[in-house]
Amino acid sequence: MTIQFRHVLVLHGPNLNLLGVREPDVYGSVTLETINQQLTARAHAAGIHLDVFQSNSEGALIDRLHQAREEGVGFVIINPAGLTHTSVSLRDALAAVDIPFIEVHLSNIYRREAFRHVSFFSDLALGVICGLGWQGYLLALDFVLNGSFVNGPAQA
After folding, report:
1. Is residue 98 part of a domain?
2. Is 30 helix (H, G, I), strand (E, B) or coil?
3. What per-residue confidence (pLDDT) applies to 115?
4. Structural domain tally of the chain?
5. Catalytic annotation, residues
6. Domain range holding 67?
7. Beta-strand (E) ranges in 13-112?
8. Element (H, E) at 7
9. In a domain? residue 75
10. What CATH code is carried by the domain that includes residue 86?
11. Is position 88 within any domain?
12. Is 0.85 surpassed by the pTM of this model?
């Protein structure tokens, strides 16, 4: 199995299929379809193969990560949504597949309820983008397209 920088997987966790209608004051009015279209267009223009996957099921997200390892995916952009604060299993899958990833959140989890301040993923992630709305996904993809992760995490 060879890791291909040119293959990126975007994972969207539970309830993100309701973007645009679910709490627009928190998550914005842009739909998941629009986000995926923007990401796909940007990746395609850069010659990158991008797969997107959304599930409300923790097991399906884990299975997709396992599949990504077999496919030689080189990078993952993940918004674990509510699983951010609860899923040891999804965390373990990310550690097991050993694919570099960026954690993305539409809202600023640190300006919300206290239980949302804890992420089970952040210490494994190359970086975390939160509070910048749907553009956070584009920033994560730009990081990948710049090849910044090839030599390790970005340095301050």
Report:
1. yes
2. coil
3. 60
4. 1
5. 27, 105
6. 4-46+56-148
7. 49-54, 73-79, 101-105
8. strand 4-12
9. yes
10. 3.40.50.9100
11. yes
12. yes
